[in-house]
Amino acid sequence: MLKTTLLSLALVTGLGAQAVAQSLNICVEGAYPPFSFTTESGSVAGFDIDIANALCDQLGYDCTLVKTGWDGIIPALLERKCDAIVASMAITPERKQVVDFSMKYYNTPARFVGREGMTMDDLKDAVVGVQRGTVHHDYMRGEHPRVDIKLYGSQDEAFLDLAAGRIDAVMGESIASATGFLDTDSGEGFAFFGPPISIPKYHGIGAGIAVRQGEEDLRNAFSHAIGELRANGTYQKINQKYFDFDIFGG
Amino acid sequence: MKAGLILESWPLFAEGVWITVQLTVLALALGLCLAVPVAFVRLRRVRGLSALADGYVALFRGTPLLVQLYMVYFGLSQFEWLRDSWAWALLREAWWCALITFALNSGAYASEILRGALAATPAGELEAARALGLRPRQVDRLVLLPAALRRSLPQLGNEVVFMLHGSAVASVITLQDILGAGRALNARYYLAYEGLLTAAALYMLVTLVVVGVFRALERRYLRHLALAPVRVRSRLPAMR
User: Fold this and answer.
1) Cβ B184–A98 below 8 Å, yes or no?
2) Membrane topology for this entry (chain B) (predicted)?
3) Angle B234-B215-B144 (CA atoms, 0-180°, nearest 5)?
4) Considering only CA atoms, which of A77, A86, A85, A91 is closest in space to residue A47?
5) HEC states along B202-224?
6) Which residues of chain B neighbour A132 with C-beta distances below 8 Å?
7) B126 and chain A: CB distance < 8 Å anywhere?
8) What domains lie within chain A, and their CATH numbers?
9) Contact A76, A66 (CB under 8 A)
10) Which of A25, A38, A74, A234 would you call most buried, defined as having the most Cβ atoms within 10 angstroms of its Cβ?
11) How far apart are CA A208 and CA A203, in angstroms?
């Protein structure tokens, strides 16, 4: 009896190692250009998507991308609708209480966007839009508790309302703000104001890949693969496609 | 289940209930005001106005509330001339966008309920009113409309519940209604269902109140339709 148990255990572990090399569902968002956006044909594309695919190739996984709204993305991971999140999610102490993270795959600062000529002094009377449940939401609550904030389900919606004049400023990640808004037609007349902001307490230590707690193998595999993509030039190739500087950060 | 977090966030939910109730009640009141003339126009086939009323009802009953709200909130704000007009003072606020959309939506549904009730008024009732010497206007105002409103009470109660639940879409345009509060709680602590469960319980609570109110209204205004005979107070001394 014991022998059979041991035998089956060995079999299971053996198979397990093989099963890892099979399929993996990855949650992505699709409303956060240039990191993640939905193309006209309805598929997802962007830096996050390319990184996710490159990591899967590197690790030999057969990956399926699952498009999930930001609000439900951590719950989706916890409920096993997917096995990892590649969605520009900042590695923060708060999130670490619920999920585990790989090493960062990029790190860029946050910035305010507002009408050209706006300054930090104007902030106290401004209505600021942020995406609900993001580090920027935490930052606004922690550092500017008196400022009136409006919560959006996605970053794109916040910029729509900024362009429409419903809000005075948007707090968000700088590259997504530049590519997703300032560089587009609707971003005309708007600009960054205030300094680039990166406070570890709120903004964490860069964007990482989230996995369920306790899934050490998967987490380490991702961290390792990120290092390899950096080393073999794949990362730089993807980086170049979207940005003219290295967004990996110091 | 993190009950502590839910209890800690009670101000968030209290605010949410207030916004939901406020939007629902105002939208229903405005909707009903709109529904009465629309129902009469559709019943009497008033030239010129009928096509307009038909189009309005078809549009708002034919499309989902969520789509209507998106069109009003994100759609209208795309037009610069509209942003420069006086209307922008209202339309720039998410709250007004929600109220306008909900009122128009509810008005379309209520007008259909009312039109049905108006059309179903027994001819004898109207004949009796005319026999009393009432002029056509007076018949409409004193007999037809009150009778139709009475008869539509149960369906209007249904419409109130639908509007209450439909108002949950307000959370997509930055309003912190009941669902918005639930989502904010979920987002803040990365929860899967606690916020939604609390929101569901609160919607249910408000619904029960609405149902209770309409039961009372029906008891009062539809007494003549009640099946049970009116209870007569016993003359016997109460048992002790």
Assistant:
1) no
2) Multi-pass membrane protein
3) 105
4) A86
5) HHHHHHHHHHHHHHHHHHHHCHH
6) 183-184, 187
7) no
8) 20-107+205-242 (3.40.190.10), 110-203 (3.40.190.10)
9) yes
10) A74
11) 12
Chain centroid to CA A71: 13
**Residues A31-78 pLDDT 10s:** 899 999 999 998 999 999 999 999 999 999 999 999 999 988 999 999
Residues 6 or more apart in contact with residue B157 via CB below 8 angstroms = B210, B211, B214, B217, B218
Q: Following CA atoms A227, A229, A231, A235 in sequence, which dihedral angle do they give, to the nearest 10 degrees?
A: -120
In this prediction the pTM is 0.80
Asked if A177 and A29 count as a contact pair (C-beta separation under 8 A), the reply is no
**Cα–Cα distance for residue pair B186/A51, rounded to 1 Å:** 28
**Are the beta carbons of B16 and B176 closer than 8 angstroms?**
yes
Phi, psi (deg, nearest 5) at residue A189: 90, 0
CA distance B180 to B175: 7
- Please report, as a single letter, which amino acid is at residue B196: L
Q: What is the pLDDT of residues A161-212, one digit of tens each?
A: 999 999 999 999 999 999 889 999 999 999 999 999 999 999 999 999 999 9
Q: How many CA atoms within 13 Å lie on the side-chain side of A244?
A: 2
Tokens standing for residue B62: 């034919």
Task: For A89, list phi and psi in degrees, rounded to 5.
Answer: -90, 120
Q: Which residue from A163, A181, A114, A132 is spatially nearest to B92, judged by alpha carbons?
A: A163
A-facing residues of B in 193-222 (CB < 8 A) are: 193
Sheet of strand A110-115: strand arrangement: A148-152, A127-131, A169-173, A110-115, A190-197
Cβ-Cβ contacts under 8 Å, A151 against chain B: 174, 176, 180, 184
Please tell me the distance from the alpha carbon of residue A125 to that of residue B124, in angstroms, as a whole number.
Answer: 65
The structure tokens listed for A207 are 């964007």
The label of the residue with tokens 């050490």 reads A216
Whole-number Å distance between alpha carbons of A228 and A237: 13
Whether the predicted interface score ipTM is above 0.95: no
**Secondary structure element (H or E) that encloses residue A127, with its range:** strand A127-131
Task: Look up residue A204 and give its two tokens.
Answer: 């964490």
Token pair, residue B88, equals: 């922008």
Whether residues A151 and B180 touch (CB distance < 8 A) is answered with: yes
